[in-house]
Amino acid sequence: MKSKITIIFLSLAFLIGCSTSKEPRNLYYAKLEVRQYFEDTTRYLKDVRKVVEEAKQYVEKNLDTSKNNAAIFDVDETSLFNYEYLRTFDFGFTLESWEAWIDSAKAPPIQPVLDLYKFLKSKGIKIFFITGRHESKSKKDIDPTVKNLISVGFVDFDGIFFKPRSPKMKTSEFKSTIRKQLAQQGYFIFINIGDQYSDFEGEYSGKTFKLPNPAYMTF
After folding, report:
1. Model-level pTM?
2. Does pLDDT of 17 surpass 60?
3. How confident is the model over 1-16, as a mean pLDDT?
4. Does 212 sit behind a cis peptide bond, omega within 30 degrees of 0 on the bond before it?
5. Which of 19, 22, 78, 187 is the Cys-Cys partner for 70 at CB 3.0 to 4.6 Å?
6. Class of domain 47-210
7. Which of 3, 158, 6 is nearest to 71 (CA)?
């Protein structure tokens, strides 16, 4: 009898909630707010710098040089800034247009993250990029993501891992698998920099530092 009462109560609560719920925020204004946030670079970069400074302080206090330390970096909206693409397509997405943007290799760096990258390199920490991007189908000499990273200052990194086109898997699963492989190779995953919570899910995530990104979400 108690379980029946509970079910009835939850059902009533659901119906009451539906009847009193407000209309969601209009998408136009939500997009406008995100555009203003990114275009006000003082505001956006201030939030990024705050995370970067926290990461630097953590490294200074906790670095154990006896370990084979590794830092994990995401690419999109962590190391490279794709706002030109996001603005052009009004925060929409098609695989064809996205891969054309990647092949252009013209995304600028997120400067505070580049500063963090150089700081970690100076400490002797190995750096690996693990990205939800795929390797380019059309550019064979040097992958455009690698070209883009190097051209804006992310030089001498120790490896980059692209999400395979098949088999299909969640980005979080892919990234966790790569981190586990690195750990099995003897690396200590020290810190992990990303803009999505999915960048940190699973094993061997290290100390995580999430950058702001109100534009999209990956899983």
Report:
1. 0.89
2. no
3. 37
4. no
5. 187
6. alpha beta
7. 158
